[in-house]
Write a structure and sequence with these properties.
5 strands, alpha/beta, five-stranded parallel beta sheet
């Protein structure tokens, strides 16, 4: 099964440099390339174009322009490859914090565009997967805390052991076709309203 072709957005105020990137992308087999030369209202344009990957090329970025692009990076939640002519350690750190997938200093050559784009997509996917796993782990931990609190409430109010309290919640969850954590949350909420919170 062939992978769906990537829609690539190239943001570059310099039309000649943008055409170099476009040529590199087209040589690499990316036919769906959109060029944007004006960064005003760029967030709206990105929403309209809805690209899979964004390539940003900044000739001589000042701090404000970099910060605007970094804010954009945080907002769009897509792989971003950023080319800059010069940089410093603070800008590189800010790019990483903003979620820029590839930050290339003084490296715009047509033959490098495809491998850098591939790396940006891979890094973005890996980071997204890690973020998802972290969120799932946090959610599981929160669920476990709520279940433990609910067990404590049942043990205290009914004078039953922990295993029996858990069995009651499991039975209620099965009967109502809900998760144990949802039953536990309802129990904790109800106990809080009744002032019986353990």
């Amino acid at each position: 099964m062939a992978a769906k072709p990537l829609a690539v957005l190239v943001i570059d105020e310099n039309r000649i440099r943008a055409s170099i990137i476009e040529a590199g992308l087209r040589e690499a087999g990316h036919d769906e390339v959109t060029l944007v030369h004006d960064v005003s209202g760029i967030a709206r344009r990105i929403a309209e174009i809805n690209p899979d990957v964004i390539v940003i090329d900044l000739e001589n970025p000042n701090r404000d322009m970099l910060e605007n692009m970094f804010q954009l990076s945080r907002a769009v939640k897509r792989p971003i490859a950023m080319f800059v002519d010069r940089s410093d350690s603070a800008s590189i750190e800010a790019a990483v914090d903003a979620g820029v997938s590839a930050y290339v200093v003084d490296g715009l050559k047509r033959e490098r565009v495809k491998p850098i784009l591939d790396m940006a997509v891979s890094r973005f996917n890996a980071f997204s997967r890690l973020s998802r796993e972290l969120e799932e782990a946090r959610s599981e931990l929160e669920d476990r805390k709520v279940v433990d609190r609910a067990k404590g409430i049942l043990m205290k109010s009914r004078g039953i052991p922990e295993a029996e309290a858990y069995a009651l919640m499991r039975k209620a969850a099965m009967n109502q076709n809900r998760k144990i954590s949802e039953i536990a949350q309802s129990l904790v909420t109800a106990a809080g309203l009744l002032g019986d919170d353990a």
